[in-house]
Amino acid sequence: MATSVAPRVFKNFINGEWVESRSGKAYENRNPANTDELVGMFVSSTSEDVDAAVDAAKEAYKKWRLVPAPKRAEILFRAAELLVQRKEEYSKDMTREMGKVLAETRGDVQEAIDMTYYMAGEGRRLFGQTTPSELPNKFAMSVRQSIGVCGMITPWNFPMAIPSWKMTPALISGNTVVLKPAEDTPLSSYHLVQVLAEAGIPPGVVNIVSGDGPGAGAPLAASEDVPVVSFTGSTAVGRLIAQACAPTFKHCSLEMGGKNIIVVMDDANLDLAVDGAVWGGFGTTGQRCTAASRVAVHKSIYHEFVSRFVDRVKALRVGNGLDSATDMGPCINEQQLKTVMDYVEIGKNEGAKLLTGGNRLDSGIHLKGWFHAPTIFGDCSPQMRIAQEEIFGPVVSVIPIDSFEQGIEVANGVPYGLSASIYTRNVNQAFAATRDLYTGIVYVNAPTIGAETHLPFGGTKQTGNGHREAAIAAIDFFSEWKTIYIDYSDKLQRAQIDNN
Ligand code: ADP
After folding, report:
1. Mean pLDDT throughout 339-367?
2. Is the pTM of this model over 0.70?
3. 151 in ligand 1 pocket by Cβ < 6 Å?
4. Which architecture, in CATH terms, is 261-444?
5. Ramachandran bin of 139, using left for φ above 0, alpha for ψ from -120 to 50, beta for the remaining angles
């Protein structure tokens, strides 16, 4: 049975019950700001556990798809209300398992609240179209239909928001769900499942299995009974997921890397641009797929911008996200910290100018965590690896540019296309940028981060595979169109042939 008191060993939620893994094993979830702190133990699921969850979801689908969408919405609405009540508790738990500062984990839970209310509202819409038939006495319409069991594999950087982006549109559309959360941050995903259970989601409609990617994620993506897979994470794993989906043409939505940019033009409000670069580059310790890891700055203001940017970043306080004095938390784990340190070496070897940071922080308050100093490289060329590859950490590469045209060229000159931003007070330039930046998201006079739930989210090129999350775009992914013709003429009418 679902309980509101979190057990120390968190089990899987399958068919409405918290159950052990068949493996009999569990792994530790530790605080990245203080590895002495054990947040909880989570079971290490196997393909058998995944199969049990998929079977439950498949069985539950038979009834759930027939529940009227406004009734499904009432459950989501209640879940959102519970999230509102528990926002502070869940935010603190999220900071303990993920490391980002409390203001940001509150934002993460708020995003789940916003998305859940939004999708609850969709329960009374889910609009299709009616349109005249080309033939007399014939009616034509399109309706959305549900698809079945949706497998969801999620990352650790938005541990409640991202599962909510995937689960709530899937559920309102009449599908059932098996979620495999990131191994580093399962607790926040459990909290989301917990409120859905308490809000009255029927057994089997939502299931969660914890564990690692190859052990629990891979069997979920490959399961024959899972026709829809939604993944957010690394490009390398996204490719594996796409391959697992290809043989049976599963619907597959992939959200992967980014190498986002802020372009600062010579007429920009410099204080505003510096604010944006600090928040965009170092918010969430740079561990957002939309993080502004590149800043392209017009040469005529380059030195002024860089000096202000460096001063601000030097003053950032790095520490435990629960401490209200902290501006930036740790990296998520040892591996991610090592990746950041490797890229710092790469940047130095490529000849980029280290302007601040560049080192691990591992003494005093940083002794027990995976901390890295906020780092800026200047005088970068657009082709350097630190200016091309996703680092997913607190490292920003500043690139001098000569013109607007070069800014757009640099912005578009990476394999990814998630988010881009321009700071300018020239309205012509701003509009030209919104047209020519080939990304899924563009900001004017705001940094690359800060997506809102009622607008599509996703990227071009190797960021994704053409789908979008959030907003109605998410409903488009989690439902299929069914076109219905009703002929009430009582005779055979042939489209394209009898209509002239
Ligand atoms: P990150 O770099 O953000 O950790 P990953 O792509 O490694 O990104 O992980 C994102 C999600 O994908 C996690 O839930 C992880 O467990 C899962 N995952 C990792 N490897 C696989 C795999 N081979 N098959 C399915 N899922 C996987």
Report:
1. 98
2. yes
3. no
4. 3-Layer(aba) Sandwich (3.40)
5. beta
